[in-house]
């Protein structure tokens, strides 16, 4: 769901997907809450979690972190979509934002792949891309400082990049 939200956010300048992104964020929130409840139950009943699912306390903490960051990324995708629908940029500047959104999407997909494959090398590779993303966002902000909503848009994209980067912590453990 989060991956689809990011993909739709990337296309906001072409078509207004905000309502769809907003509705899916509600779904992610519900699933996150369910995950938190399940993880808390497993932490209270560690023998059952270990016996049925082969999950120890560290794996449960990693699932908690994963859930937190995926939900935070979905929240930021919703916020980015909200600002993309409001902002007025030239086609050239829109294309820069779309390019950065595509980089965020690739980073998210790659980081989730790294998580499921427990691939620390890929996680490090994705984490190493964060400074380039931040630099591109700073550049877009600097070139469009007088544009309404540009600060909010670029900051929420930075927060999304940071949450994607922070997913790596669940992989390194």
Largest sheet: none
Q: What class do helices, strands and sheet pairing give?
A: mainly alpha
Oligomer: single chain
Helix content: over 70%
**N-to-C CA distance:** 25 Å
Shape category: elongated
What does the average pLDDT come to? 96
Poorly predicted segments? none
Radius of gyration: 17 Å
Number of helices: 9
What is the percentage of strand-forming residues? Answer: under 5%
Number of DSSP E strands: 0
Element order, helices and strands? HHHHHHHHH
Mind explaining what this structure looks like?
This protein has helices spanning 2-10, 18-44, 46-53, 57-86, 91-117, 120-128, 130-143, 150-166, 168-172. The mean pLDDT is 96. The protein is mostly helical. Helix 5 (91-117) packs parallel to helix 8.
Summary tags:
173 residues; mainly alpha; 84% helix; 0% strand
Can you give me a brief rundown of this structure?
The protein is mostly helical and 173 residues long. It has helices at 2-10, 18-44, 46-53, 57-86, 91-117, 120-128, 130-143, 150-166, 168-172.
Topology summary:
Layout: H1 2-10, H2 18-44, H3 46-53, H4 57-86, H5 91-117, H6 120-128, H7 130-143, H8 150-166, H9 168-172
Helix pairs in contact: 1-2, 1-4, 1-5, 2-4, 4-8, 5-6, 5-7, 5-8, 7-8
């Amino acid at each position: 769901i989060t991956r689809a939200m990011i993909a739709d956010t990337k296309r906001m300048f072409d078509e207004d997907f905000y309502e769809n992104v907003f509705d899916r964020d509600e779904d992610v929130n519900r699933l996150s809450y369910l995950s938190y409840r399940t993880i808390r139950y497993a932490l209270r009943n560690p023998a059952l979690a270990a016996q049925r699912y082969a999950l120890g306390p560290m794996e449960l903490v990693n699932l908690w972190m994963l859930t937190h960051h995926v939900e935070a990324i979905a929240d930021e995708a919703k916020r980015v979509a909200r600002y993309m629908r409001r902002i007025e940029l030239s086609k050239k500047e829109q294309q820069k934002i779309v390019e950065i959104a595509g980089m965020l999407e690739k980073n998210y997909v790659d980081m989730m792949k790294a998580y499921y494959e427990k691939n620390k090398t890929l996680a490090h590779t994705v984490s190493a891309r964060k400074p380039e993303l931040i630099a591109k966002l700073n550049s877009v902000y600097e070139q469009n400082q007088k544009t309404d909503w540009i600060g909010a848009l670029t900051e929420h994209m930075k927060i999304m990049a940071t949450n994607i980067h922070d997913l790596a912590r669940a992989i390194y453990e």
